[in-house]
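Sample 1 of the test manifest.
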Amino acid sequence: MLHKTLQRQLIKAFGSQQRIPKDLYSLFQTISDTYFHADEDRDLIERSLEISSRELENLNRKLQSEGELIEKEVEKRTQELSAERNKLSIILSGIVDAVIAVDLERKIILFNKAAENVTGYKVAQVIDKPIDDVIKLFDNATQISSETFCPMPQNNFEGIIYKKQGLKMLGLKQQQTYVDLLTGQIQEGHVFNLGCILTLHNISKEMQLEEMKLDFVSMAAHELRTPLTAINGYLSVFIEESRGTFTEDQKMFLDRITIATHQLVALVENLLNVSRIERGAFTVKLEKIDWLQYVKRVVEQFEERAKQKHLTLTLNTPSTLLPPVMADPLRISEVVSNLLSNAVTYTPGSGSVTVWFEKTANEVITHIQDTGEGIPPEALPHLFTKFFRVSGKLEQGSKGTGLGLYISKEIVTMHNGRIWAESTFKKGSTFSFALPAVKSD
Amino acid sequence: MTNTDQNQVIALIEDEDLIRDLYKRQLEKAGLSVVAFDSGQSALEWFKKHTADLVLLDVMLPDINGIEILRQLKADERTKKMRVLLLTNLGQETILKEAECLGAEGHFIKVSYTPSQVVELVQSKLTNGSNITK
């Protein structure tokens, strides 16, 4: 049985089936076998091709569905990411403080809603702009450079790297606000190209209120001075012109009215000084002063009061010459008078008040020591605080305003000096202040 | 009682009646002639025809403030030589510095001065013009 294709070709070649030579039949048989083999091979190939294509199709289908899955996943992740971003920007826009982040070149990469409000800029105007082009910060009149308030990350530091309160900030068109600034950094800053994060708390309203309060205090104090001028003036003229006509009682009454008036004048003066200090309008003009002679003159003014109270008021002249000090004569006399006045007021009769000096390498220290009631230990740390009054026995019959020591401290600080108090309860107190000495050359 | 020349004239510009009356009374008692004004406008009106040996000028006045009056007096050839002493209860350093620049003789805080001290200050100004108060 020959392969059909071969048989057809042999018939074509020899004319008919019968003409095919029988002696070649075994040869044809072999060729026919090859045909059959070829057929088998082809079938095999066809079948495997068929299988492959089916497999490919399956694979394709699988790939397609996996692709779809991936696409869906990507879409989902993108949504999640954008939701996360939205959440972040919603949170940031919800923060009442301005948040500004800058990159390692101090260019703005994040700017929240509050930052827009406080600076006047819109976020689109500032992204990628250097921080210096957007805000300027001032401590009083001195501008703070962005290198200072916005330092670049170093040594893997993480946390608050700069902090300053009550800064003046200029934004768009010199829009002015007052802010408390906090600058933070994260450890991975370098990795994310994140320089630092500024948080600005707008305190303009508080500043405005504070200013109004100070204006009110100074206005009220000035208004008080007008009637006080009249009371004081008429009283002094009245006493002068009627001198010698008063009974002992009348004299005592008038003395007391005078004392009370002077106290009121001093109180108003103190209130004004406090308001000046807080407004930064209180200044000192330093000049070279012969300190011993200067203090001597102030002490002399208290001799009469000390005598009346039977107090011993002494000024110990130092054994070696005191160097001159740099001080504002008008302001520093307030300090010496205040400390002496306290010592004389709070030391009971027959006690003593002693002024003595100490010289260190750079300072002249003045001590005002009394044998009075002393100050309770718990009150010592608060003595120089505004409106602080020692409660208890000291308080009785005293006329303090709780401003004298606060003002003294401020004045001494303006002289680059120090002021402090030491006291043994029931034994007495020593108030001391140090002023920078003028170096002899 | 005083060695001040009787003919010397003090112009006192102060809107507070109580203070104006008191200063006027005490200065006149010391033998000085005092022309007193309760407003800046009335004083400027008077200065159009007169001058004074010393002007006591309140800083806070209801119509024109003392600094403006000082400026006008110093801008006029006829009145610019008059010595002006400012009275104030404000004591604002910036204003006082401005006054000094404009040519004021000095100032005093009213509440810190008794009327006799004011009279002494005025007399010292009249006899010794160069001795400027701080």
